[in-house]
Design goal:
Length: about 425
């Protein structure tokens, strides 16, 4: 069915990179796309994930990397999780994020458009004990939990009743996953220990240790090999222990068990081993790839449903798959806002084209790595580049001012070490 007037409703699931850029691009001119926009998400803010690791140790404050969707995006917002889509009846099944109450949002398959931009959840590979004992790093609440756990470990380790072994265990911070998220958390933890803990917990700091465990041969394996090698050497200089080709098979409250029979005790475990589909995406009856992502065409359309679109980490292009990154989700969101405007006007949009802008990561001690096509940067210059790129990419002036202020505050006064 071709629609030659704006869609009646545009329903957007999610408030992450993909959805936020779609809504911001639609902006005040959204009436060209739809008479009404309804946004459904269990969080009423956008999170700038590239700087999330910095909030776990207080280099940045939580509020500095989030932005309200109510103030900055058009349409009506419902604080709820979509639990299913009944395509035949035309209804999005929802559960309130506050009281768990359920409700349905009806839609018309012919005159409404639906965008699934729900991202992904952390991959656990079904390893027993991960969900119960590990901490993830996807949302602000995850970062807050990590921060609380770090301080709980430090305060517990200060008690006079502990044995030396127990103290060392509590002060052992372990990260599983050698991609950018795991590497950046280890880097932030190193900075925190090397500067603030030295001053605030002088009796404990010599017992603090950081270990990064990865099943692969190299850290940052999606980056250029020279940058992976640089990161590993840099971590060795910082005394961050790296266990490569090490497979975790079980997690207990205080230790990891490896396939080769070894084990490693920890006080705080952060798990960052890539993406898995969310329960909503798992429940959808549309074609998916082998990792469970929705298959979409070059117009970001899901096959078999007239106006159903998907983008970002929950979807994968049928041909020429692109990385599951913020820049990809952002480009897709911007594209879809423009493509929907054209469709609503009865015109056929051009296919989506991804433009790779390179990859950056912070590796600690004021060093970074930058993989920008032919240019490979590392060290202090790459760190400055990393900071300036993310400062400009932050989505509002408010975020930029707050992040700049936090960086200055951390530089002058150190991180906040109060346990709240
Ligand atoms: C710590 C960390 C650091 C990262 N650093 C980088 C980086 O430096 N560069 C880079 O390019 N990428 C980075 N990424 C990856 C990047 O964040 C993701 O690729 C990007 O956020 C994907 O965008 P998205 O819109 O698909 O999903 P997300 O941004 O994850 O947003 C998903 C949204 O859907 C909502 N949602 C979830 N389930 C439901 C549901 N059932 N119903 C309704 N709404 C739902 C969520 O609340 C959220 O608002 C990082 C990721 C993490 C976790």
């Amino acid at each position: 069915v071709s629609v030659t007037l704006p869609f009646k409703q545009l329903i957007v699931l999610g408030t992450g990179f993909g959805a936020y850029s779609l809504l911001r691009t639609a902006g005040r001119k959204y009436a060209r796309i739809a008479e009404d926009i309804i946004v459904i998400s269990p969080r009423n803010h956008f999170v700038f994930t590239p700087l999330l690791a910095s909030t776990t140790v207080g280099s940045l404050e939580f509020r500095s990397v989030i932005e309200s969707v109510r103030l900055r995006t058009p349409g009506r917002f419902l604080l709820a999780e979509a639990t299913g889509i009944d395509w035949d009846r035309g209804a999005v099944l929802c559960r309130s994020a506050l009281d768990g109450g359920t409700f349905e949002l009806p839609f018309n398959r012919d005159s409404d458009a639906l965008v699934v931009a729900v991202g992904a959840q952390t991959q656990t590979f079904g390893i027993p004990g991960v969900v119960e004992h590990a901490l993830f790093l996807k949302q602000i609440n995850d970062a807050r939990r990590i921060r609380q756990r770090i301080f709980a470990c430090l305060e517990l380790a200060s008690l006079p009743t502990l044995s030396d072994d127990e103290r060392r265990r509590l002060l052992h911070f372990v990260v599983v996953g050698g991609g950018p998220t795991g590497v950046e958390f280890a880097a932030e933890m190193f900075d925190f220990a090397a500067s603030d803990l030295k001053r605030a917990y002088p009796n404990l700091v010599q017992d603090v240790s950081i270990t990064l465990v990865d099943a692969g041969k190299h850290l940052l394996s999606s980056y250029d090999a020279t940058l992976s090698a640089y990161t590993e050497k840099h971590f060795a200089r910082q005394s961050i222990q790296v266990l490569k080709e090490t497979h975790v098979v079980r997690v207990e409250a205080d230790r990891l068990h490896f396939k080769d029979g070894g084990e490693l005790s920890f006080g705080c475990l952060v798990w960052a081993t890539g993406n898995a589909p969310t329960p909503l995406v798992k429940s959808l009856p549309f074609a998916k790839d082998k990792t469970g992502r929705l298959l979409i065409d070059e117009y970001l359309k899901v096959d078999g449903a007239p106006h159903l679109y998907a983008l970002g980490d929950c979807a994968v292009l049928n041909e020429n798959p692109i990385p599951a990154t913020a820049q990809a989700a952002e480009q897709q969101g911007t594209y879809l806002a423009k493509a929907l405007t054209m469709r609503a006007a009865g015109r056929e949009p051009v296919p989506f084209r991804y433009i790779h802008q390179g990859m950056l990561a912070y590796v600690g001690g004021h060093s970074g790595v930058a993989d920008l096509g032919r240019f490979k940067g590392r060290g202090f210059a790459a760190f400055l580049f990393w900071r300036s790129v993310y400062l400009t990419k932050l989505v509002s002036l408010r975020n930029k001012v707050m992040v700049l202020f936090d960086w200055a505050r951390t530089f002058i006064f150190g991180r906040d070490i109060s346990r709240m």
